[in-house]
Structure formats: structure tokens, C-alpha cells
Hints:
heterodimer, A: mainly beta, 9-stranded mixed sheet, 6-stranded parallel sheet, 1 helix, 31% strand, globular, B: alpha+beta, 6-stranded antiparallel sheet, 5-stranded antiparallel sheet, 10 helices, 17% helix, elongated
Amino acid sequence: MSRRPPRGEYIETDTGNKVARKATLVGTQNIMLGGKTVIQPEVMIRGDLIRSIQSSSSSSSSSSGTPNNTAVAIGRYCFLSRASCLRPPGRLYKGAFTYMPLRMGDHVFVGPSSVIQAASIGSHVYIGAKVVVGEFAIIKDYVRVLDETIIPPNMVIPSFSIVAGQPARVIGEVPEGGHEAFELRELYKTVGNNPQPAAS
Amino acid sequence: MAPLNPYTYIQCPCSDSASLGRPSDPTSPASADGDEEDNTFDPRAPRANFSLYPLEYLLYCEDCHQIRCPRCIAEEIATYFCPSCLFEVPSSNLKSEGNRCTRSCFQCPICIGPLSVTSIEMPPSDPNLLAPDRAATPHTTYSLICSYCNWSSTEIGIQFDKPNSIHAQLAKIRNGGASRLTAKERKERRKELSHRGGEAAAAAASEAAAGQDVDLETQFANLKLFYTSQLADPNAGDTGFSSLGDLGFSSPSSLSRIMNLYTGGKLHDPRAKSKLGAMREAVTADEGLLEADLDESSLIAQLHQSDFLDTASSTQICSQPPNLGEPHLHGAVRFNSSLRPVPYLLRTKRSKRCPACRHIVSKPEAKVLTTRFRIRLVAGSYIPSISIRRLNLPGPNGPAAPAILGDLLEPLKPVHFVLTFKNPIFESLKVTLGAPAKTPGRFPSKVTVLCPQFDIDANTDVWDEALKDNDRESSSRSRRRAGTESQFQVEVGKIWERGRNWVSIIVEIVPASLKLEAGQDALREDEDVLEIPMFVRIEWEVENGGEDAASGPGRDKDQQEKRELAYWCVLGLGRIKQG
């Protein structure tokens, strides 16, 4: 009997991204992963919700297939936990309903069962479990969003804030000694087909 | 009971008032604070709560070689900015326009969510409209809409003509749509009237002012004008107090006169008026008098008719800034229809200074959008961090049960915890620990630190260490293998494990039994949490680079300088099972 090596739970790309086989990624040609990003099972990334309005400077030929059609752009060392969902936000723009790209920075941790519809998320952001980030919200760097927060649409969260509540309010500030806690390099090593045990 | 994750809180020396202000003397080997001889630190004392901080919140002053906490640090404001539009507000604007955003950033008065400006489409022109000339051009109006609770400013009757500078437009509108004159406009009108005519025009203006509602801003301006005029010319009073000239109100002229009596008259200003007239209070609305309308029957009738949800809650009322467009309400805002959009409070970027030596300990970049810091001296880079995990040793009957974090501790059964000290600095550290044998409180648990004194190696580069010897790597990896834990014996005086820049030791705890005797109070909140106070003293040597001003003339440049730091910390380990 031939013995195939067991299929790992994750697909590891050469840029170091670890994408679970059970994750649902729609429209993958519009999803940019930065490298060393972990996508856990049951994550959904909607790459099919792209801009439908093309700017006038683009070529007059067919509108599909233009190179800069990113729906979701993710930075390095991001971690998308189970059952989270990344959806580009959409609105009425010049009379037509269109979607805008969702941009995430580096070292972003998205907690389980969270729904992210923000316009942009900065670097070193921790988003807890069951968080809903409303459409076109802007989260700056070094922000900590606690569990079960609901961030209303169009909200701007400045850097170094700790945010909680429904609707979200800034309840505290990240102390100067807390910057290193946002780094996700160690967490990246604990996941995958050959997980290293967590360094204490 | 909520499961407890182990935590470490450190007490800042600022709470010990004797040590603050004493200049640090790095050459003397004397103990840093007298807590060691004094009573042991009680983490359950009511004051203790205010002096304990986790390691992330502490900063370190390099000159005093002391840790600083958010309580003792002196903060200076570097920049003010609006948290919504992220625009920097120069500090000169703060004095004139207050500490709120004056652009278009507002919060919903009902739910404190962000408001966004949206346009309202005007309905197609109706022939019955009273403004026929405007019906030809479509006129978009804008309103503020909350995206969380769907409140709209049209609910209080406010709409805007332009989508920007909403703050200025809002100052000119009252709830319900009536317009309001701002203070500037009133001043200009008064000036115009006074320029045009003499007495007759002034009388007409004052009558007109009395006829209008006097709102907070105008009332304040009128009162201020009245009082300054009274102070300048006190003899205009027409009451009978002029005979009692010595009794002065606290005006500058009377104060100086009273001071002259005490100083003997040499500083007497011959030009000052010797007789002080009396001051009177405001009498008319033009001077700032506002009669309280204590008849609230109309408000009560409205309350009878409206719904409970139409009234404003206390949090909603408290978040409203003072409404300058309405007269002073001698009660409070009661209805949701009188709530107004709340401008955002400005946020700050602050730089922090050591209170003793005034050196800057933390300084962010002044630009709002950069997140870097120019100076950032955190305690985490100077004192060892302590991480706690529970250790389950195999009993005499079989293999060890896996340790679950947050498990309740059995009373009167010894448990072991592994404390890992990580050294952040580039010199080797000598750590001495002291913990009281019994924890303070009503239910004392027995604490034994198995190795109270040990050395931690310096935090050198990973590659240096790997090149030096390979044995260290294997020993650090063996820590993670579950099977080998049983090989390690718990011995007094020996460390548990050692790594490149960390050391683990064992602490043995016998939790107390939480049985209440007859006559004792019931268990208070969090009294079942096992917390051990521990005194940590670290010593390390620094190569003196010759910059120290205290060095004598004949000092050898290579001499090692011994430095030490000591502090109390509290380790929260877990909850004890009740019953």
C-alpha cells in the first residue's frame, strides 16, 4: 500500500503565508497577502467585491482584468483567526454602488468570528473575538480592540487606543511598554503544519 | 468564579514617600528602600491598588536609575489633535476655541457614535411653497446622521447649507431651526447702533436686547461688561453704603488701600482714591440679570405627554458641552429634542518627565500620524520580566495530570509554580527574592521560594550564544518536552531551568483553606485570589565610561560600577477553591 504523507492542514507558500485548506477565499486574484500571514480554517475573504467604477485614466478597453484591482490587501505577519470574515466596504459613489479596497497593515491579529469591513487598518493592531468593524472605519496603528466591540461605520480610531463597547468608545491608551505585545512573529511560528510550541 | 490568568504587578517606589527625593547614590551598597525592614507589602490594603502596575505601564529614568509609574510621572502636552479628523490643533487655538474640535467632527448625542454629514435631497418644488424664487434652483441641504443608532439632526430640526465647517453653522442655529446671534454678531450690532445714534439708539438697543431671550453667552458677556464698569468707577453706586468707606469689596483699589494700612503707608499711591464707593448688582437684562423662571408647569405637561424614551439619560446629559445658545436652565436638559451634537474632545500626545531629575523619559514625535517615539525608556528594557506557569509534578501514584491554566487551587494541597525571569539588559544580573512565609490577609497561604538567589546571564545576541556552545540550545528545548518534566526533581536551593537570558525557579504554595469560622464576615470579593507579595532585588555591574560626574580624579576607567534596584511586586497565581 502506498502511503501518501498526510495532507497538512495548511498550505504554505514560498513567501511564508500559511493558508488553511478549509478557509474560503473568494476572488483570490484580488487578494494580496504580504508574507508570513496565517489564515486559519473557516476564514472568509471576499475578494470578489471589487471596484465596479473604473477611473477615466484607465484604458477604454474592457474594464475587467486591469492590474490594480485589489479588493483586500494584507500586510506581513497577520493572523486571521477562525471564522473571521474580511469584506471590502461598499457605498454609493457618484450614483453607483461600488466597493472600496480593504487595506491592512503588518502584525494585525483578527480574533475568531470577527467581521472586518473597514476601509483601512494600520499596523500592530489587535482585534478581539466577535468584533464587528463597520464600513469605512479607519483604525490607525497600535490599536487594541477588545472582544465583542462594535465599531460603527465611518469611525476613526487614533493610534495607541484601547477600544471597547457597543458602539465603540476609546477606553484607554496603550502604554509605552506595551508596543512589543503587538508583535506576531512568535504566534506565526506556533501555527502551521510543523508548529513550534509557544515560547513562554 | 472567573478563571484567573496569572499576573505580575509591580509597585512603584513613589508610594514609599521617603524614597522619593532622595538623590540616588549608585556607589553605596545600601538598600534602596526600607520596606524590607518595615512591614511586608500587603497587596490587599486599600492603598495598594493605586500603586501596583503591570510591567507595560512602568517607565524607567536612566539618571535616577529608578522605575517611574503613571502616578508619579510628570506629563507635558506635546500636541493636541482631534481623534476623528486627526488634524493637529495649535495650542494657541485652544485658548480661544476651547478643547473641542471646531471642524465638522461630532458625536451623536444619543449613542456617542460618530456623526457623518449627508445631503438631504429636497423634494421637487411644490407650488404651495412660500418661497417661489428659490424653487427654481435645487438647494441641497445637509444633516448629521449617526451610523450606529440612525439619529439624524433633523430630529432636532437642524439642517445645514454647506457640508463643511459645521461647527460654525451649528453655533448659529438653535434646536428647532431658529437662528441665533453669536457673540461676535451681537457685539457688531451693538457697535453699529452706537455709531449711528446717541442715547436714543442705545435705549432702543437695550430694549431690543431685553425683548430677546438672553442666552448664556450674551448673559456672560453682559455681566462681565457690567462688573468691569463697576470696578472701574465704584462711585456710581447709589446705595447708602458710601459712609462706610473702610469696608471695601475686593476690588483692586480697595485691596491696595488695605495693604497700605499694614505696610505703613510708604507705598501709598497719592493718586488712588481714598474713599471707596459701593458696588451694586445687575438690575436689568442688559446688565446681565436673568430672572429664574421657576414655573415649570409647561415642562411638566410636556413630560406627561412624552414617552420615557424621549427623555435624556444622565450619561447623555453629562456628555453635552454647555449650550451657549440657550438661556441657563435652572434644572437640566430633560428631553431628547434639546440635545445637540457633541463636538469631539481633543486628544493629546504627551511627553513624560521624571519628577525628580526632570529628564525626559518618553517623548513621542510631534506629528500626529507618526507612531514612533524619539525617546522611550520603558521599565521592560531594564528590569526582568516575570512569567508564571503552573507546574504539575507527578504524584507518587502515576504520571502528572496536564496543567490547565486557570484551574482552581485545592486548599491545603501544595502546588508548584514556575517563575521565569527574563533578563533584558546586556549585563548579567544577580537576583535576590524575598517573600513572606505567609501571605497577608485573612486566609494566609504558605509560600516557599525554593531558590531565593540566582544569577541570570546577559541578553547577548542569539548568534553569539549559538556559536559558543550548543548545549544550551538542547537544554532550552528540553524544557518544552512534556515527558522530561518528571526527570527534574524539585530541590531547595537549585534553579529549575536556565537559558540564554532567562532562569526559571519554583515556588511552592500551600493555599489556605477558605473555611469561615463562626462570627467572621462572608468572603469578600476577590479574597479567594492567591496573591503573593515578593521583594525583588537586582544587582548588576556597569562599566563606567567616565561620564559620571561623581567619579573622583583618580578613578580607573575600567572599573565596574555596581548598581542595584529593589522593588516589591505582587504575583497573582490563581483562585482557591471554596468549600
